[in-house]
Write a structure and sequence with these properties.
4-stranded antiparallel sheet, 6 strands, elongated, binds zinc ion, alpha+beta
Length: about 120
C-alpha cells in the first residue's frame, strides 16, 4: 500500500451528525495516522487541533464536538453553526414560515423570514 496511488485514493470517512450539522471523520495518514473533521456542508477539512477537537479517534472527536455544542454554545445550534463558519440555519432546510413548505422556491422577507413563492404571490407575509 506504500505507493503513489494510495495517496490520491479517497480515505475512509465516518459520517456523523451533531447538533444538526453533518460531519465526517476522515482518515489521514501523513505525517502519522490521525483523523480529521470534515464539514459536509462546505467540504472543508479542518487542520488537526482546530477547536481543540481530538484527532486520535472518532469517538473522542465526536465527544469533543458534542462538548462544543453543549458547553460552549450552550445547546444553541445557531451559535454552534456559526462557530464552524456556517449560516445559523442550513440553506437546504428553508421552511416557509406561513405554510411550512420545505421544498419550494423561497423568498427572503425584510424581517429575515423565508416564505415560499406561492405565499409571497398571495401576499401572506
Ligand atoms: Zn408558503
Amino acid at each position: 500500500m506504500e505507493n503513489a496511488t494510495s495517496q490520491t485514493k479517497t480515505q475512509a470517512a465516518m459520517p456523523f451528525d451533531i447538533g444538526g450539522i453533518k460531519f465526517a471523520a476522515v482518515r489521514a495518514t501523513q505525517p502519522r495516522p490521525h483523523w480529521r473533521v470534515r464539514l459536509e456542508e462546505t467540504g472543508e477539512v479542518f487542520e488537526p487541533g482546530t477547536g481543540g477537537i481530538s484527532n486520535e479517534s472518532v469517538p473522542k472527536m465526536k465527544a469533543d464536538i458534542q462538548y462544543l455544542l453543549d458547553r460552549i454554545s450552550k445547546g444553541d445550534t445557531s451559535d454552534f453553526r456559526r462557530r464552524f463558519g456556517l449560516p445559523p440555519t442550513p440553506a437546504s432546510e428553508s421552511t416557509c414560515v406561513e405554510c411550512g413548505a420545505t421544498d419550494a422556491d423561497m423568498v427572503g422577507c425584510p424581517d429575515g423570514a423565508e416564505i415560499c413563492r406561492d405565499c409571497f404571490g398571495a401576499g401572506r407575509h
